[in-house]
């Protein structure tokens, strides 16, 4: 499913984000930036060891040894990935919904898109942030993700945004949420 928002496009796709050749792909990282399971592990594996070296450098330098806060985003190279850049953002862990999870998830999408815009990146792919190990229910997560992307594309000229879903079930949920939002 593909739609136009002013001079931008948003497309829902089913597949592996590590194979995506958009200029940037987004990693659902954790605050340590040291890699992990799920999409994070897959991205580090496909990018090769240099990605971890750059992530460690960002932790020491830009982040002064602190964790990357939930909702924030930083950018690295893509190394052996087809994508030139990886934008690492930390999704909220689902704790029932009363701990600001909605706003923090929305921040992940908005801050990643803003970072792309600031770096003249014209195409970006997102995974379904927080809906794996972090247990955010897919239906509300899909509504927040798509609403955040649509709002951003309505106000900015970015180019192409892909939501890369990893299961048919997730794809169907995102598709019905998008239809509902339009
Ligand atoms: P989080 O910790 O933010 O929940 P996960 O990596 O556990 O992150 O899951 C986020 C989403 O990424 C899940 O929907 C998972 O199925 C999906 N995912 C895992 N591997 C890939 C991949 N290679 N490409 C795209 N999506 C993926």
TrEMBL record:
<dbReference type="InterPro" id="IPR002589">
    <property type="entry name" value="Macro_dom"/>
</dbReference>
<feature type="domain" description="Macro">
    <location>
        <begin position="1"/>
        <end position="182"/>
    </location>
</feature>
<dbReference type="InterPro" id="IPR043472">
    <property type="entry name" value="Macro_dom-like"/>
</dbReference>
<protein>
    <submittedName>
        <fullName>Macro domain-containing protein</fullName>
    </submittedName>
</protein>
<dbReference type="Pfam" id="PF01661">
    <property type="entry name" value="Macro"/>
</dbReference>
């Amino acid at each position: 499913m593909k739609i136009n928002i002013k001079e931008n496009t948003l497309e829902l796709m089913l597949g592996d984000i590590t194979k995506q050749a958009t200029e940037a792909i987004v990693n659902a990282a954790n605050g340590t930036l040291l890699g992990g399971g799920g999409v994070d592990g897959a991205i580090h594996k496909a990018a090769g060891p240099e990605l971890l070296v750059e992530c460690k450098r960002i932790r020491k330098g830009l982040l002064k040894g602190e964790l990357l806060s939930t909702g924030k985003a930083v950018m690295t190279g893509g190394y052996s990935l087809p994508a030139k850049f990886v934008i690492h953002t930390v999704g909220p862990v689902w704790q029932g919904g009363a701990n600001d999870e909605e706003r923090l998830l929305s921040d992940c999408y908005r801050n990643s898109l803003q970072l792309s815009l600031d770096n003249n990146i014209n195409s970006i792919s997102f995974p379904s942030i927080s809906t794996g190990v972090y247990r955010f229910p897919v239906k509300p997560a899909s509504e927040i993700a798509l609403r955040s992307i649509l709002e951003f594309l309505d106000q900015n000229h970015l180019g192409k945004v892909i939501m890369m879903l990893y299961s048919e079930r997730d794809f169907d949920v995102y598709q019905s949420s998008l239809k509902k939002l339009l």
